[in-house]
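Input record, target 12 of the design panel.
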C-alpha cells in the first residue's frame, strides 16, 4: 500500500514556540527489527535524552494525529539495563537527572522523515522532550508508534525530588506510572494529560502538592495507595477505580456513563473534601 504519509501535502511538524526552545534534536539508532509482535510495525529505533533535576519543571509533550504511543514513568531501577550510562551525577555521586528513552516503531523507513523529536526548554527554565507528527483529518492507522520511558533516579537527593514537577501533554497515549520510591522521597507534583487511552498507577505514589490525571474514553486505575494534598481524576465513558486508599485534603473525580470505585480514608476533622461525579448511570 506504500507509505501512508506520502498521500497529500504533509511536511515535518515544527514545534510551536509556546512549547519551548529547541535544545537538541534526537539522534536515533539505525532501524532494526522491532521486538513487537505487531506485524504492522516491524522496525524500531531508539533515542535518549537527559533532563537535569535542577530544572525542577520537567515535561513530555506529544502532538499530532499521525502517531500514538505509550508513556512509562518509573524508577531507574526498573529500567532493566540499557541506556549505556552517561548519567549526570551530583557531588555526592548520585544521579541528578531524568533519563528519557524514546522508541519509535514503524513500517517504512520513509515515515521517519515526518516526525520531529527534540529536547526543549521553556522560558521559565523547565526542560522536556517533545514528539511532533503531522495532523491529518483521517488515517487508517497511526504510521508511527512511540514508546517513551522516563526514568526517575531513586538515588537522587530528597531535596531535589521535593521540588520536581513532572507534566505530560499528549493524545492517544497510554500512561503507566510506577514510582514506589516516592513514598519515601516524594516529588512535588505530577500532571498527566492524554485522551482515548488509560492511565494506570501501579505502585504507591506520594506528591507534596498535587496529582492530576486526565483522559477520555478510558479507565483511570490506581493500584497502590495515593497520598497528595490535592487529587484530581477526570475521564469519560469509563470507570475510575482505586484498589488502595487515597489520602488527600481535596479530591475531585469526574466520569460519565461509568462507575467510580474509590476508598476514602478514615475521616479526620476538616478532611478530606470529596467532589465525586458520574453522569448517565441508571
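The sequence produced for target 12 reads:
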Amino acid at each position: 500500500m506504500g507509505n501512508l504519509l506520502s498521500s497529500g501535502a504533509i511536511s515535518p511538524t515544527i514545534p510551536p514556540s509556546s512549547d519551548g526552545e529547541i535544545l537538541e534534536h534526537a539522534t536515533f539508532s539505525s532501524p532494526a527489527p522491532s521486538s513487537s509482535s505487531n506485524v504492522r510495525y516491524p522496525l524500531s529505533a531508539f533515542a535518549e535524552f537527559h533532563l537535569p533535576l535542577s530544572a525542577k519543571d520537567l515535561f513530555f509533550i506529544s502532538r499530532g494525529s499521525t502517531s500514538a504511543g505509550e508513556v512509562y514513568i518509573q524508577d531507574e531501577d526498573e529500567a532493566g539495563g540499557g541506556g549505556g550510562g552517561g548519567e549526570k551525577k551530583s557531588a555526592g555521586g548520585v544521579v541528578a537527572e531524568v533519563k528519557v528513552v524514546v522508541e519509535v516503531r514503524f513500517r517504512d523507513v520513509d515515515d521517519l522523515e515526518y516526525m520531529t523529536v527534540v529536547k526543549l526548554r521553556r522560558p521559565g527554565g523547565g526542560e522536556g522532550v517533545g514528539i511532533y507528527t503531522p495532523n491529518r483529518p483521517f488515517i487508517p492507522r497511526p504510521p508511527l508508534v512511540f514508546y517513551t520511558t522516563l526514568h526517575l533516579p531513586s538515588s537522587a537527593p530528597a531535596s531535589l525530588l521535593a521540588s520536581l514537577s513532572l507534566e505530560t501533554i499528549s493524545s492517544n497515549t497510554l500512561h503507566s506510572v510506577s514510582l514506589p520510591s516516592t513514598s519515601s522521597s516524594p516529588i512535588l507534583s505530577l500532571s498527566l494529560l492524554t485522551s482515548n487511552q488509560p492511565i494506570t498507577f501501579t505502585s504507591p505514589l506520594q506528591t507534596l502538592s498535587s496529582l492530576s490525571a486526565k483522559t477520555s474514553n478510558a479507565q483511570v486505575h490506581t493500584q497502590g495507595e495515593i497520598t497528595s494534598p490535592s487529587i484530581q481524576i477526570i475521564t469519560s465513558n469509563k470507570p475510575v477505580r482505586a484498589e488502595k486508599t487515597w489520602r488527600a485534603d481535596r479530591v475531585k473525580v469526574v466520569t460519565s456513563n461509568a462507575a467510580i470505585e474509590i476508598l476514602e480514608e478514615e475521616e479526620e476533622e476538616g478532611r478530606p473534601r470529596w467532589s465525586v461525579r458520574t453522569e448517565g448511570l441508571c
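Helices lie at 158-161.
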